[in-house]
Amino acid sequence: LGMLMLFWGCRGMEIALFYRVQGWIFGHGHDAATLVKKVAVDQFVASPAWFVPTYLIALRWIELGGSWRLLRASLDREFWMHTFPTVMITNWLVWIPALALIYSLPPALQFPLFSVVMCFFILIVTVMASGSRRAES
Fold it and tell me: Which of 1, 44, 96, 120 is least surrounded by Cβ atoms within 10 Å, i.e. has the fewest?
């Protein structure tokens, strides 16, 4: 529980900073061009390169009791060819429409709405992960 709290606390600060940087780079406009740029960078650059892999690796590490040895062994071909793409597609299905709405809001409302959607997304991924573990048993 402590590790999850630490992870999500750090992830929350990371996302808040990411939103600020995107606002600095692209502006805080609500026009279609600005929204498309923000969603595209978020979902097709940052998410596959950082957000989703670190999320999956952190959850796997916690699931394996904090063992770096077991974590390294579990990051095999199956992880990168099945687990990662499955979660990435789920990520796009949830976050592309959600981010279009989030980025259209004033900056002060973006992170609170992100937090609500993140709770929903975590539930989806948790159910997907537990379903795959039950199928393996």
Answer: 1
